[in-house]
Amino acid sequence: MAGMTVIVRTIARLLFPFTFLFGVYIVLHGHLTPGGGFPGGVIIASSVVMLFLAYGIERAQKKVSLLHAEVLESVGGLAIVVLGLFGLLFGTFFLQNVFPLGELGQLFSAGNLPLLYLGVGIKVAAGILLIFYAMLFAFRGGEE
Amino acid sequence: MDFNYVIAMLLVALGLYCLLLKRNLIKIIIGLAVLTDGIHLFLISLGYRAGGTAAIVSGEMFLDLPGFAAHAVDPIPQALVLTSIVINICILALALSLAIYAYRHYKTLNPSKMRRLRG
Amino acid sequence: MGLEPLIQNALLVFLFVLCVIAIELKDLLYSVIVLAGASITLAVVFLMLQAPDIAITQAAVGAGVATVLFVIAISRTRRQE
Predict the structure, then answer these.
(1) String of DSSP letters for chain A
(2) In the prediction, which pLDDT does C1 show?
(3) ipTM, 2 dp
(4) Contact partners of B by the rule of 3+ C-beta pairs under 8 A?
(5) Is A143 a domain residue?
(6) From B7, B31, B40, residue closest to C12, measured CB to CB
(7) Which residue of A39, A70, A111, B112 pairs with C57 in a disulfide if CB–CB is 3.0 to 4.6 A?
(8) Structural domain that includes position A36
């Protein structure tokens, strides 16, 4: 898939940091405001995909390659499991909260919920990127 | 409020019509998306109450939880729909991949022409 | 009360019309773009029904990822129905 015209490239380059930052905001404020791990991860993945579509695969792949996405997805999944085991080791049951609760309405509060949302966000962003890669590269090297 | 249910049922009927009568795999998947949109609209309308507020507790609402619960909309259909959206996007990706493979194999997107067996 | 149910009903009619157009268009790429517009309209309706969580998710998924997946699938197959 080749790149697009210079107008699309410029707009995508200007818009990419804001979209990415909005996704990170949605993930980090998942326990306070609407949103959470899944919508934030999808927004982050959409920003990267927008860069792909504007610049073409070959140039954008230097930023996030297939291997990076696979490693990130595993890291997100492992973070959730490790948080669950924390609850099992230091508490009584899986995913029990062992961190300080903090004050209501603050960013650093609610125990392990923000960390869980962070893990879910990383996993969802990498997973959507992997779906994108899989559909784009499924037929490279075949006929045609 | 009744108008919401009418539109939801019309969307489901439209999606079913597209699933049953269209002769193009991509168009059939678009019909699947429309059908799912109708179901989501129905469920969210089911949990709404007139003049309700969103079911998100913040700030001093925490001091008056029964008063908050008397005004909030029902959050359980919203959680259901959130899960349904996630499943829907996975189904779309899988169905589109299958459509691409079918096109590579049969050189057509028409499901009624995909009867012959090849290799 | 007053204006809000009127706007909501108008948005619902607009949503239905967009879905009919998306299904009946012959060009699949146009059809997918109209479907993304219908998804955004549905997100606004969700916001008016006091479900901001669903609205954010529907806007991100319906107009972002689903459209990209459809466009990739159309670029791998044929565009006309």
Answers:
(1) -----HHHHHHHHHHHHHHHHHHHHHHHTTTTSS--HHHHHHHHHHHHHHHHHHH-HHHHTTTS-HHHHHHHHHHHHHHHHHHHHHHHHHSSSTT---S----TT-SS-STTHHHHHHHHHHHHHHHHHHHHHHHHHTTTTS--
(2) 59
(3) 0.90
(4) A, C
(5) no
(6) B7
(7) A39
(8) 6-138
